[in-house]
Design a protein that fits this description.
The chain contains 4 helices and 5 strands, in the order E-E-E-H-H-E-E-H-H. By secondary structure, it is of the alpha+beta class. It has one domain. The strands form 2 sheets. The protein has a 3-stranded antiparallel sheet with strand order 1-2-3, covered by helices on one side. The radius of gyration is 16 Å and the shape is elongated.
């Protein structure tokens, strides 16, 4: 799975593949159950239901990981915790030095 952010903080372009089977890119909000269900159906149709039986759950885990707070030992005490999504959207000073 490849995620690319658009100019919006809630919309991503999602590409999925398995071996040589490619799912056409789709754009939407990964936090939306409807969008994840659409991605799961596209993946099941492309890969086969038996090949990727847990694809919808896996897509949900990606969304959950992006929304989860990431601990930053260098953060100020009063600083709001950031999600992985926040860090990827805004960068992380530690990664740019």
């Amino acid at each position: 799975m490849l995620l690319r952010w658009t100019n919006s903080s809630t919309k991503t372009v999602v590409e999925m593949w398995r071996q040589t089977n490619l799912v056409p890119p789709d754009t939407g909000n990964l936090n939306s159950a409807t969008f994840r269900e659409r991605l799961g159906k596209s993946a099941s149709d492309t890969f086969g239901k038996d090949t990727a039986p847990n694809i919808l759950e896996d897509i949900g885990l990606v969304a959950l990981a992006l929304a989860s707070e990431v601990s930053d030992p260098d953060a100020e005490e009063d600083e709001k915790p950031k999600s992985l999504w926040d860090l990827l959207m805004g960068g992380c000073p530690r990664w740019t030095t």
